[in-house]
Every structure is written in C-alpha cells, then in structure tokens.
Amino acid sequence: MRVLVTGAGGFIGATLLQLLQQVGQVGPQRITRLAAMDRTLPALPDSVERIEGELQDAQVQSRLAQFGADLCFHLAAVPGGAAEADPALSRRVNLDATLDLFNLLAEGRTRGSAAPVVVYASTIAVYGTPLPDPVTPGTPTRPALIYGAHKRACEILLADATRRGVLDGRSLRLPGIVARPRAASGLVSAFMSELLHALAAGESVTLPVGPQATAWWMSAQRCAENLLHAATMDPMLDTQGHMERTWALPVLRLSMQEVVDTLSALFGVDGHALARYAPQEPVEAVFGRYPVLDDRIARRLGLRDDGTAAELVQRALAPYAIQAANPNSSSV
Amino acid sequence: MRVLVTGAGGFIGATLLQLLQQVGQVGPQRITRLAAMDRTLPALPDSVERIEGELQDAQVQSRLAQFGADLCFHLAAVPGGAAEADPALSRRVNLDATLDLFNLLAEGRTRGSAAPVVVYASTIAVYGTPLPDPVTPGTPTRPALIYGAHKRACEILLADATRRGVLDGRSLRLPGIVARPRAASGLVSAFMSELLHALAAGESVTLPVGPQATAWWMSAQRCAENLLHAATMDPMLDTQGHMERTWALPVLRLSMQEVVDTLSALFGVDGHALARYAPQEPVEAVFGRYPVLDDRIARRLGLRDDGTAAELVQRALAPYAIQAANPNSSSV
C-alpha cells in the first residue's frame, strides 16, 4: 500500500508520519511505500520518499500524481490566521490545490483497484464562533474564517467524490491540538500548549481566559492515531440512510482549572500559584466557551479522545521527553 | 447603478433581464447600465450591453471586470445533468469561474462605494435527495449531485466574502421553475412544465408520478421578482445573532391533482381525462415527495410564492401568450 502524507513537516503531520513508520501498516495492509510532502521537510529516514514544495506547484502535483497513493492523509494547508490575511493564497492552497490533489488521486487509481482513500484534516473552524451549543452531527456550519469556509467546501466536494465512487473520503474535524512547541506560533490558542509546558517546567504562565473557561483538548499523538484509524474504519449509515463522511473528533472537554489541577498532581507543582488568569473577553468568547460535543457516532466508529486529563497531559508532553514526577497521581 | 445578469440567455435569466428593463430600477436606484452575459444571447435592445462567451473564458472575465457591476445576478451555470456527466466542466464553471467572478466583482468595487451586491442563484439541490422532511433554515445540506455540491460551496464562499466585507452576497435556493418551453429539455422534471402546457392546450399528458405526488412550484416571473427583491432586501439577524445570507425561496407545495384541478377550471378542460398517471418509483422519490418547507424567515424578508395555484398557472403560461378561458374560476 502506497501512503502519502501532505503537510508532513507540520506539528500533526510529523507525528502521523512517525506513527506510520512505527506501525508499518494500515489496518491489515502493509505500507510498501511512504511519501512525505510539505513546503519544507526535516531530515527523514531514507525509506520515506520526500516531495518538497508548494502544494499548488505544478511540479509537486506531477510528483504526487506519479506516486499514485492508495491512501492519502491530506494535512497541508494555509492555517487560519495566514489564510485570513491572504484570502487569495487560501483559495490557491486550501481550495484549488486541495481539489487538484483530490483529482489527481482519483485519476491515479490503478485499474481494478478500490477508490483511493483520502483522510482529510478538516477543522472545528467550520462551525464558526462562538461554537453552537451543543455541537452535534446535525449542527449547521457557519465558518467565521475563510480557512473554515475553504475547509468546509472541501469536505463537501470530497463527500461528492466519494458519492461518485472516484475517492473514498473521510473528513475529520480537528480541534486545537496540544502540545505545540513552545516557540511563539502566533496562534492565539497557543496558551493551551503553553500552560502544559510551563507548569510541567515549574514556571508561571498567564492565561487569557478564566479558570472556568472550557476548551476541547487532544494530544497530537491521539490525533495521529485517529487519522490512522479513520483510514480503515467503516462509515455507517445514519438514521436517515445517509453515509456520513465527516466527523468531529471526540474530545476531552476540560476547564483550565481541571488542567491546572492535573498538571499540579502530575508534576508536583503548585499550579494555583503558577497559573495566573487575565481573562480577555474576545479570547474567552472564542477559546474559552467550548460547548458539549455530541460525539457518540464518532466514538462508535472507534475514534477516541485521550481518555483522562492525566493521559492527555502525559501524551501531549511525551514528544518533548517531559515525564511526570507522579505519573500515577489521581487527577481529574 | 450598473447591473449585470449572467446566464441571461437562459429560461430564468431572460425573464429577469426583461423585468429589469421594464422596471428600470433596483429599489430606489436607477439602472444606468445593464449588461447581459451568456454563452449565447438572443437579440436584445441596444440599451443592453452584450457579453457573449463562456464564463471561464479569460476574455469574458476581462469584459465582466471592465463593466464593473454594482449589482450582479449570477445565474450562469452548467445544469445538474450536464454537470454530473462532466464533473471537470462543473468545477470549471460552477465553482472556479464563479469564484473568479466573485473576485473580479470585489476587485472592481469603486473606491468609497458600498460592496457590490451579488444575488446568487443557488438551488434546492443542495439539500440532496430525498429532500429532508421538513426543510427548515437549519436543515443540513447533503447534495446528491456535483451540481448541488458546487452550488453549496459557492454559497459558503459568497457568505465568507460578505463576512469579509468585499461583497454583499445573497444566495437564493431556487426550486424547479415553470413553465419551461415545450421543446425537450432533457430534464426529468420537465413533466411539471409539460403538464401546464398540455392541459392549457387541451392535450393529454402522461405524468411519471401519481396524482398525490407533491412538488414545489414557482413561475419564472415570480422567481425573477424574487431575485430582484433579494438585491435590496435587508437580511436580518437570526435568533443566534447570525446574519443569514442563504434562503430557500418560498414555494407553493401542490399535488399533481391540485394542479390538474386548477388547469381544468382555468381552461375549461377535462383534466381528469387528459392527465394520465404512470408513476415511476425513482421519479416519485426525487420529484414527487416534496416535504413541507419552513420558509417563514424568507417570507418575512419579502420573498414570495405565486399566491395561489391559479395565479401560478396563469403567471407561468403568460410568456407563451396562453390565457385562461375562465381566469376568475375559483380553484385550489
């Protein structure tokens, strides 16, 4: 099985690429070739084929077509803030080049084989802000960023390609993922990752939301596992007989206070002293009032959250070789 | 005010173009220039500027940009069946060229003036088949044709351009419109128009659905009036504070039997003898079980159905100079 990961140089893509190398297979099928595509790629084992360049570049598209993936994890995208600052770039990458990729994957199908599987990294930004309460599989989408609008358009068109039988698409709506590297990412939501890093290191942190602010949490490792699972899971018919092709990932919904308590117990620090709250209403409105998510259908398909707050924190920090002082402490 | 109509050679576009010439203004604003764009255009008065060619053609796009519309009615599209037969063509016209048009309208904005208004002819095909029951403003879209998928994507991206303040978009989801010319259109839904033509002429007709089959009905004239109204109506905030930009048009939901009765009374014919029913299950499923439409919000904005079945029939047949024998007969 030939497997392609676009956006493989990114935070989540790199985690997924590593997971694929570790497990060596997708469901029962062995990975015979593995390709990583991104604008820039880090050093990679020789066994991973490198496709370096812009997704919208004709030469890159030609190399992607030549690779002829049986399974593509499509993560490459212009992120929300950059997309909003340059709508034309967002259209080129997040819409046009993404649809080009879908086309070339469909056209690259080997005669007689199944339609190529596309696992598409969509986003909870399709719902808009503030998030509707609750979020269910029937919640209308109202993207409030061009990033979310283009992602939603691609979800629809991937579902259509699936209906037409030329691709086998599975769109996962990803929440914010922790823990990003500490270097300033420019993302407003970076405070979620910073909270984990700071308290684990016994450092203070100031949060732009209050202690009761709720957010949806998932580690990069669990996210990668879900992307991999999505490649082989069997989408069910819903109660109306529709084959659903888009799911919000199950999440842990935790308050800042719960995460602080968990970090305090795991790392033996005084989180109440280290974590300071300077709530800013605009940040609270977008990142501090995550509602209940009805993710029962996604769970039934085998998609998973991190289990507990303690597992979330440990899984999120493991890539940084940060280990809890009291890994078995009971917490939230 | 410079007004552009794309798809002006089509059934609905031509009706709209005629209405614009008749009224000469949009709300309080006088139409100073009027342009008609389509692949092919009929003879038109000298006062109407002609832009003939494919929407995706660079020269056509350049002429559309030069025109610099303050208001664009965008009706040009590859219709459902043709789009399904050629997905790449649908992408070029119904998605790419439509987004190009949105861009060039936004870029053509005169400094200091309001964002150009775009009235976009979307479709009830965004809901998928069978239609969910009932259809409400919150009904999730599940297009079952690439035509509907591309229309839905453009609704989303027009709403996003509106959010960004570069356009003032209003998407109307059009139902099937009557009465198309009798010449074979290739549309399965043509039987709805044929029923009107045949009974008005005292001819027999065989319908592929049963007498109790319900459909959504609207005349081309009323549809054009709604498109015009949409250009100046004031979109309201919904109960969640969202500015809605997409509406299904209000419709008359009538059974075949009701339409036959209406035609019988208006034209003094024996509709029960002339209309024969040979229901085909696949046609019934798609065109014979239109559910209740919750169109209260659209009505509050001033969008309208045809009033009564008798008004619908007379308005639909008026362009063919077909007049009822008993215009004031009471009917449904």
TrEMBL record, chains A, B:
InterPro entries: Epimerase_deHydtase, NAD(P)-bd_dom_sf. Keywords: Carbohydrate metabolism, NADP. Pfam families: Epimerase (PF01370). Residues 3-209 form the NAD-dependent epimerase/dehydratase domain. It comes from the Bacteria. SUPFAM superfamilies: NAD(P)-binding Rossmann-fold domains. PANTHER family: ADP-L-GLYCERO-D-MANNO-HEPTOSE-6-EPIMERASE (PTHR43103:SF3), NUCLEOSIDE-DIPHOSPHATE-SUGAR EPIMERASE (PTHR43103). This is UDP-glucose 4-epimerase.
